[in-house]
Amino acid sequence: MGTPDFAVPSLRVLLDSGVQVVAVVTQPDRPVGRKRIMTPTPVKIEAEKHGIPVLQPERLRRPEWVAELAALQPDLIVTTAYGQILPKSVLELPKLGCINIHASLLPKYRGGAPIHHAVMNGDKVTGVTIMYMAEGLDTGDMISRVEVPIEDTDTTGSMFEKLSVAGAELLRGTLPELLAGRVTAVPQDDSQAVYSPNISREQERIHWDRPAEVIWNQVRGLNPRPGAYTLWNGEVLKVWACEKPRNGDMKAAIGEDLPEAGTVVATGEQGIEVMTGSGLLKITSLQPAGKKAMAAAELVRGGQLTVGTVLG
């Protein structure tokens, strides 16, 4: 059970492992783009390449879908980034249980956006945990885990790719032990649980009175989707990339009278520097409303973004 690109490497590992994949369950096809073209999920595309039956329930918990899964008589259900909560009636179907490949080091970052939150919080390391599924939200006993560092150059997009591969390789090593009954699952310490709900619109907005490093983490944590934004001339201005802030004396760089947070204090071919609540932040990639993403210098060359402009 899986839906986005993140889940494809794990499906490939199952196909390479010699087990019989009796079916793939994924989300229904959705309209994509301005023309609203009905588009299959990446997992469906991969499954169809190998002639695997694909099930696409709008709601997995409906009795008719539970019955269809039961008819398959699965020994094991593997999920990763599926997008629906499995009801108890499904969790109880396979004799070896249901396992989930979760993109965090549980019990930290339970929930739907673990990678976003890890990057936005400035974590230096995250990882993947394979666990037995339970009725709670990512609360099941842990079977195996692997750590993956978060570099300064990483975004949520690059971490999706790294963790997707790491999760698939973890599955490759865990599956034989699991099938042989040799795994020892470890309960999670609920007192250490941290939740990572899906990103809200408010979390996307940049508050310039925050420290520069906090905003830098926010921007890379929301890249490539949904994107951090500020307001410029009353319209949304997406901020896609910034340089890591450097420590320094702002008064020496700007003068004694520090401008309000959100003020553009310098422009150049390398980007624009904006005043924050603590330090300067250099923005290198922007996207004005109704346009494509561009280098910040393009707005500077066009005379549209000047020193003294206040972003809000």
TrEMBL record:
<dbReference type="InterPro" id="IPR036477">
    <property type="entry name" value="Formyl_transf_N_sf"/>
</dbReference>
<feature type="domain" description="Formyl transferase C-terminal">
    <location>
        <begin position="198"/>
        <end position="302"/>
    </location>
</feature>
<dbReference type="GO" id="GO:0005829">
    <property type="term" value="C:cytosol"/>
</dbReference>
<dbReference type="InterPro" id="IPR037022">
    <property type="entry name" value="Formyl_trans_C_sf"/>
</dbReference>
<dbReference type="Pfam" id="PF02911">
    <property type="entry name" value="Formyl_trans_C"/>
</dbReference>
<dbReference type="InterPro" id="IPR001555">
    <property type="entry name" value="GART_AS"/>
</dbReference>
<dbReference type="Pfam" id="PF00551">
    <property type="entry name" value="Formyl_trans_N"/>
</dbReference>
<dbReference type="GO" id="GO:0004479">
    <property type="term" value="F:methionyl-tRNA formyltransferase activity"/>
</dbReference>
<dbReference type="InterPro" id="IPR011034">
    <property type="entry name" value="Formyl_transferase-like_C_sf"/>
</dbReference>
<dbReference type="InterPro" id="IPR041711">
    <property type="entry name" value="Met-tRNA-FMT_N"/>
</dbReference>
<comment type="function">
    <text>Attaches a formyl group to the free amino group of methionyl-tRNA(fMet). The formyl group appears to play a dual role in the initiator identity of N-formylmethionyl-tRNA by promoting its recognition by IF2 and preventing the misappropriation of this tRNA by the elongation apparatus.</text>
</comment>
<dbReference type="InterPro" id="IPR005794">
    <property type="entry name" value="Fmt"/>
</dbReference>
<feature type="binding site">
    <location>
        <begin position="104"/>
        <end position="107"/>
    </location>
    <ligand>
        <name>(6S)-5,6,7,8-tetrahydrofolate</name>
    </ligand>
</feature>
<keyword id="KW-0808">Transferase</keyword>
<dbReference type="InterPro" id="IPR044135">
    <property type="entry name" value="Met-tRNA-FMT_C"/>
</dbReference>
<keyword id="KW-0648">Protein biosynthesis</keyword>
<dbReference type="InterPro" id="IPR005793">
    <property type="entry name" value="Formyl_trans_C"/>
</dbReference>
<dbReference type="InterPro" id="IPR002376">
    <property type="entry name" value="Formyl_transf_N"/>
</dbReference>
<feature type="domain" description="Formyl transferase N-terminal">
    <location>
        <begin position="17"/>
        <end position="171"/>
    </location>
</feature>
<comment type="similarity">
    <text>Belongs to the Fmt family.</text>
</comment>
<protein>
    <recommendedName>
        <fullName>Methionyl-tRNA formyltransferase</fullName>
        <ecNumber>2.1.2.9</ecNumber>
    </recommendedName>
</protein>
